[in-house]
Each structure stands twice: as structure tokens, then as C-alpha cells.
């Protein structure tokens, strides 16, 4: 017996005046605000997608839950909390923008670098990211939505402004409350929705493996593995701070490159980050700092919740700032196969960067 297409609803809504994105197309607010303000999340997502020029056939939307608390906005859904947000974004992309394929990290988890990697790999239109960034998460913390454009980078100011202008006049959005997606099962799932794409495809991918393959093409894994396991091995200590980087640290540094399992700490992603801000600095990454001060480890690092910020410590807790890290990479490009093959066009740095790179 042929099943009927899953119905799509159009929901009337009222605009909000406070949805101006900051920091590369992102909107971050207290979780309680998302929970208490009717349609606050779908309004912003609708505005975001309305601002982007999408290719109707090849376009893909990435959805990534960087570990944080997801608001309990739709109580009529008998599904896991973060799946609600996944569905919201799927419906708008499908119905209003004729997008026929959506790619999601297994269990809804991707790091920011992995999002960028996959967007560029399959030439996606962009990626939607649910994140508290490095702020405290959970019911008493923060929640946010960010957008990465087709080049894998954050949305530019012109896109952010367009999102904001649309958000102030929004009157409706589309939703498909009966759709169910299994985020734990790798592979393709197909659905017949009330739109021109039949079937609509949702692909669940192993984002860690995809990102690992990219790293293999950039760095000399044999040299790094020898550094971590050879006769003159260096002991490392990596703190994922209970954010999204835990699975990446385990898979890449421990399983692939041979670092002992106890080299990695706080690798279980938690929605409230264990009650601590996942901010990799000397104030919050205290477990790593204390371990490094003992002199047992020669290299230490901590990551923020979504993997796009880090802190490096040397032996005895010596702090290595980001400016020096960049300068060290620049001075040793001959050790990185990707740059040996592709060459270097330049180095990027921000206003507070030191003059180490010049030297």
C-alpha cells in the first residue's frame, strides 16, 4: 500500500526586533529566552534561509549540533530534544527553498572545522550550526544558531544584515511535524514530503572520519605518529572540555596517531559542558594546566565547545599564545606536505597578533 506524502504545515508568526546576528551570522541568547518566546528559533532560521541564494538542485544544508542545550520548543514532538531543531531546519529548507538533500553529522554532532570541510567537499550551499560556542550551556546557560556560507567560512556582515532585516517583517514559516529522522544511523534516509522533491534525502555521516581524511592529506601522519609512539616519544595531554571535540580527539590522536588513551580528558560531550564554560584559557582549563605544571607532559592543548578555538601549553605549563603558534607553523612549512605541494598564498592574522610572524 502506497503511503501518503508527509504533510507540511504553514505556521503564522510575528516578527521579533532583537534577532540581529553578531559574530558571523550567529544569534546567541539565553536558553530560557528560546524556550519562553513563541517561534523564536524557527523565526530566525526562516530569516536565515531567506537571506541566502540557494541552488535548487545541488544545494545542501548542513545541520550541526555543537554540544549545547537545545530549547524545548515543541512539546508535541515525542522525540529527543535536539531532533526538534533538526526537523525545524529541514522543513524550511525543503519547502521554501526547494532543497532536496540534507547532510547531518551522526547524533547531530560536528565540529566547526568539520562543518567547513564537508561544505567544501560536496559543494554545499552552506551550513546551519546550533551552538553555545564557548559560553556555558544548559537550561541556565546559552544557546545559539550560526550560519556558514558556501566557502566554509562564517556569514559576512552583508548576509547578517539581510537576515536581520528579514526577521523584522517575517509572517510565516513552514514545518512538517510528522517527519522522523534517526540521527544515530549512518547512511541515507528517504522521505516523501509534500513538495517537488521525491524522495527527500537525509544523509547521516561520520564527520570524524571525513575530517580525519582531510587531515591525512595535509599533515605527515607518519612523522606525528613516530613523535607520539617512537623511542623519543613526547607525552601529550589534550582536554576536550566536554565539548564536541571529544570524539575527534579520541579518534585522531589516540586511535589513529597512537597517543595513549589517558592522554585525552573530558572527551564525553555534555550538553552543559559539565557545568563549566568550555573556554580554553588559563582560567577555565585548570585541569589541563595543573597536569602540565607537573612536567610529565611535553605538549598540552584544550579546545572550546565547537573546536574552532584552542589553547596550547608547553612543558611545565608554559603558555604558547596563538601568535607564536602561527609563527612556528610559518617557519616550518617544509614539514607540512600540503603546503609543500600547494604552496602558500599568505598568512591570516587578527589585529592583536604579535610581530612574531613578521620575524
UniProtKB/TrEMBL annotation:
**Annotated coiled-coil segments of the chain:** none
**Gene Ontology MF annotations:** phosphoglucomutase activity
Q: Which GO terms describe its biological process?
A: carbohydrate metabolic process; myofibril assembly; striated muscle tissue development
Q: What SUPFAM superfamilies does UniProt report for this protein, alphabetically?
A: Phosphoglucomutase, first 3 domains
State the source organism's domain of life: Eukaryota
Asked if Magnesium is a keyword of the record, the answer is no
Phosphoprotein as a keyword of this entry, yes or no, is: yes
The text of the family note is:
Belongs to the phosphohexose mutase family.
State the name under which the record lists this protein.
PGM5 protein
Q: Please name the source species.
A: Cettia cetti
**Corresponding gene?**
Pgm5_0
Amino acid at each position: 500500500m502506497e503511503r501518503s506524502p508527509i504533510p507540511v504545515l504553514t505556521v503564522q508568526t510575528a516578527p521579533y526586533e532583537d534577532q540581529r546576528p553578531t559574530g558571523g551570522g550567529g544569534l546567541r541568547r539565553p536558553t530560557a529566552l528560546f524556550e519562553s518566546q513563541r517561534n523564536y528559533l524557527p523565526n530566525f532560521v526562516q530569516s536565515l534561509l531567506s537571506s541566502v541564494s540557494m541552488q535548487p538542485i545541488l544545494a545542501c544544508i548542513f545541520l550541526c549540533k555543537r554540544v549545547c542545550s537545545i530549547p524545548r520548543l515543541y512539546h508535541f514532538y515525542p522525540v529527543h530534544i535536539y531532533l526538534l531543531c533538526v526537523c525545524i531546519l529541514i522543513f524550511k529548507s525543503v519547502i521554501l527553498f526547494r532543497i532536496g538533500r540534507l547532510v547531518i553529522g551522526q547524533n547531530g554532532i560536528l565540529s566547526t572545522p568539520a562543518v567547513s570541510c564537508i561544505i567544501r567537499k560536496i559543494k554545499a550551499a552552506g551550513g546551519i550550526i546550533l551552538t553555545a560556542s564557548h559560553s556555558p550551556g544548559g537550561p541556565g546557560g546559552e544557546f545559539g544558531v550560526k550560519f556558514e556560507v558556501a566557502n566554509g567560512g562564517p556569514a559576512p556582515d552583508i548576509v547578517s544584515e539581510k537576515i536581520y532585516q528579514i526577521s523584522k517583517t517575517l509572517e510565516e514559516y513552514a514545518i512538517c511535524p510528522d517527519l522522523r529522522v534517526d540521527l544515530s544511523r549512518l547512511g541515507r534516509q528517504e522521505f516523501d514530503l509534500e513538495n517537488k522533491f521525491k524522495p527527500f534525502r537525509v544523509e547521516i555521516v561520520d564527520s570524524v572520519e571525513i575530517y580525519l581524511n582531510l587531515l591525512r592529506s595535509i599533515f605527515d601522519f607518519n612523522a606525528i605518529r613516530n613523535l607520539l609512539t617512537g623511542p623519543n616519544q613526547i607525552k601529550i595531554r589534550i582536554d576536550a572540555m566536554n565539548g564536541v571535540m571529544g570524539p575527534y580527539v579520541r579518534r585522531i590522536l589516540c586511535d589513529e596517531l597512537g597517543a595513549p588513551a589517558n592522554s585525552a580528558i573530558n572527551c564525553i560531550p555534555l550538553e552543559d559542558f559539565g557545568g563549566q564554560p568550555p573556554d580554553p584559557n588559563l582560567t577555565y582549563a585548570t585541569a589541563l594546566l595543573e597536569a602540565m605544571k607537573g612536567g610529565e607532559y611535553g605538549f598540552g592543548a584544550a579546545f572550546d565547545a565547537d573546536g574552532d578555538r584552542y589553547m596550547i601549553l608547553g612543558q611545565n605549563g608554559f603558555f604558547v599564545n596563538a601568535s607564536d603558534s602561527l609563527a612556528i607553523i610559518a617557519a616550518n612549512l617544509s614539514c607540512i606536505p600540503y603546503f609543500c605541494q600547494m604552496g602558500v598564498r599568505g598568512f591570516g592574522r587578527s589585529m592583536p597578533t604579535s610581530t612574531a610572524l613578521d620575524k
